[in-house]
Design a protein that fits this description.
Length: 86
């Protein structure tokens, strides 16, 4: 199973890659796991949709509408993905 072969570090790396793809102006120093949606300059509904879609495709999972709405930080995305992979 996917979760058994993926370390937490690898999972975090993949999530960071998603964030840097969705937010091309994001620099390493500005990324933080707890940084909230309203602290990102361009995290609007379109960016939210892209984050969810990219994560679902990358990890072969499907988020519920409620889960999608509740994701407000990289850490929230990490926790949601982990819950699907375990």
């Amino acid at each position: 199973m996917f979760a058994n072969v993926m370390s937490n570090d690898k999972l975090k790396k993949m999530i960071k890659e998603i964030f840097f793809e969705i937010f091309p102006n994001l620099v390493e120093d500005d990324f933080a796991w707890g940084k909230k949606q309203n602290e990102y300059e361009n995290w609007d509904s379109f960016a939210q949709l892209n984050l969810i879609t990219f994560a679902e495709a990358k990890f072969n999972i499907t988020f519920s509408l409620d889960e999608s709405i509740e994701i407000k930080s990289a850490n929230d995305l990490l926790k949601s993905i982990q819950s699907h992979l375990t």
